[in-house]
Amino acid sequence: MNNKNDINLNNDFNKFVKGIEILMKSPDFSIGTTPSEVIYTEDKMRLIHYIPVVEKPSPTPVLVTYALVNRYYILDLQPDKSVIRKLLSEGFDLYVIDWGYPSGSDRYITLDDYINGYMHNCVNKIKEIHKIGQTASSCNKITLLGVCQGGTFSVMYSALHPENVKNLITVVSPVNFDTDQCLLNIWAKSLDIDKIVDYYGIVPGDLLNAGFLLLDPFRLLIDKYIGLFEKVDCGEGTTLTNEENIKNFLRMEKWIFDSPDQAGEAYRQFMKDCYQKNLLIKNEMKLNDKTINLKNINIPLLNVMAQYDHLVSNDQSIPLNDAVSSTDKELLIFPTGHIGIFVGSKSQKEVCPKIAEWLKLRS
Amino acid sequence: MEESKEKQNKGTASADPLKTYLESTQEFFDTWMNNYQSTFGKLTQVPAFGPVREKQEKVMKGFPIYVNLYNTWVESNINFQTVFTEAMKKTYEKMIIESKGEITTTKYKDFYKIWLETYSQTLKEFMKSGHFTADMGKLMTNFMDYQKYNKDMIEENVLKPCNLPTKTDIDEINKDLYTLRKTLKDLDKKTNEISKTIGEHRQKVLDDLDSKNNEISKRMDEISTRIDDLSKKIDNQKIDNQRIEKIDIKLEDIKLELDKKITQPDLDKKIAEISKKTKTDIQLELDKKITQPDLDKKIAEISKKTKTEIQLDIDKKIFDASKKTKTEIQTNLDNKISEISKKIDEQKVP
Prior knowledge:
By secondary structure, chain A is an alpha/beta fold. Helix content of chain A is 44%, strand content 15%. Chain A has helices at residues 3-24, 83-89, 111-129, 149-160, 183-188, 193-200, 205-214, 217-231, 239-256, 264-276, 314-317, 319-323, 340-343, 345-360; strands at 36-42, 45-50, 62-65, 94-98, 142-147, 165-171, 202-203, 262-263, 286-287, 290-291, 301-306, 329-334. Chain B is mainly α. Helix content of chain B is 87%, strand content 0%.
């Protein structure tokens, strides 16, 4: 081996040592640091209100709904890449639903409970706080911003309670589940959901996570950790950057494996009606015997997608725009991935500003 | 299994030692499975008997469940191994090309990239295939059956005899808890709705009461004004009555004065004279003696002192009377007339 090789090896070794040194200090990688307050709780669900940062926030409040799998704080993972902070600085009044961690007693919670119960109560709470609809001058609707499965929930809610929704924004949200572009959709069709739910009751988050890891096991279980040390730069005076890199890695790592268990009955219906029978886009899905008709949605719609989304391919989201009866509707596709749309470089520079721009005109 | 066998055979290079090994494994497993199904597998289906019949049946049911799981696991495993073998082969081929020339540390990184990309790509293709999907579905189903069987057996053979709560017991409680929570929420919602309705109704009633109260107050004010007006009128009436009384007194005085001027003996004499005459004579005499101008003169003389006063009083009386109702005036007049008539009649009596 020549000198060049020795230098390369030495550099790599130094990077590794540096990384280990930082990790040994147990760096504080706190997440979700944007100031907020819990304004409503119901069972394990919490409604969080982020403290506005402008003097006069937009009069139409925004309710952000995240998926049941993984946690809402991906939207506020780190201060410099926080979707929440960005939207607050754009002048919006933001609320987020934290679904919590279901446990044994929640196994019978249904999709109807989530949408017509928790979500509906959150909307009413926000309306109550803003005294929406109580004065002649105030409007009686709010904006829904749904992310991933939360977007699907927001679509369902908007179709069932159009009287409460002024604008609908869906971000990487599936409505058409009949696709061969995503492995999850292909696999879901072969699963005996009843057997899984009947056995577990509360479907373990780890089981779902195993499924996500199986999508790309070599990258997600090996390359990612090797890459961590690649990111550590041993240059002079760059300790803070190294530390920040490690912290950001740890934040993402925490989020990825922070997978709440799933309430069995809700999981059963979502998997069978959506992933296996694809009823939602056909206007055949029912919640508590009430059919969800997407044609009931005639409000402004912004459908945001990620071009390289490996979990929700674009063909799962695009049909929403044709399914609704809205005339004011827009599709936005950004060259990023399912997670990158929130924490990637495009998020702060393109995604959030575009959403804000669209929403400001309609709030 | 046939499918899997077919798959194994497709494109298999008989010279490939790894594939030969996998084929042998598959072959061995198929033979084992066939033997099991024709021997012990059948035995497990024999109806149980004797005192431990039920337990025995349950234990025997476990065998096919376990065998099914094992079967799908081996099949999946063989399929995976086939994919890995293929990935390994591809990687090896690429590395041979890359390893030409000097081996540097950068080259090792390139080898790593080749390995990663080749394995990822090959596995991804396999996982997209119907084989993997079917394998995974079967494996999950059989795994769930196996887990459920184990759970049931532990509950029945361990937890129940120890008088410990089972998952089934806990789930029953969970269901009750869920139902109770839901009922509570529904009740809460209904209570709120009722409270809201009551509140709205109460407010409406209060508003109505307020409005009525205002109306009553307004009416009261009007009535008070009327009462004041009436009181004033009554007071005026009192003053009028007093004035009438005064006029009566004056009239009485006039009468008395008149009485004084016509003395009783004169009157008696006159009456006696008159009584001797016929009514017509008297009338004639009276007409002769007391002519109208004389009478006027007499009255004027008598009333000379007080005429102006009397006239003023009468004017006032007329003025006051004009304020009274027609009936009142009529009544007063009737009374006065009857009084005067009475007095005249009394005077006429001899």
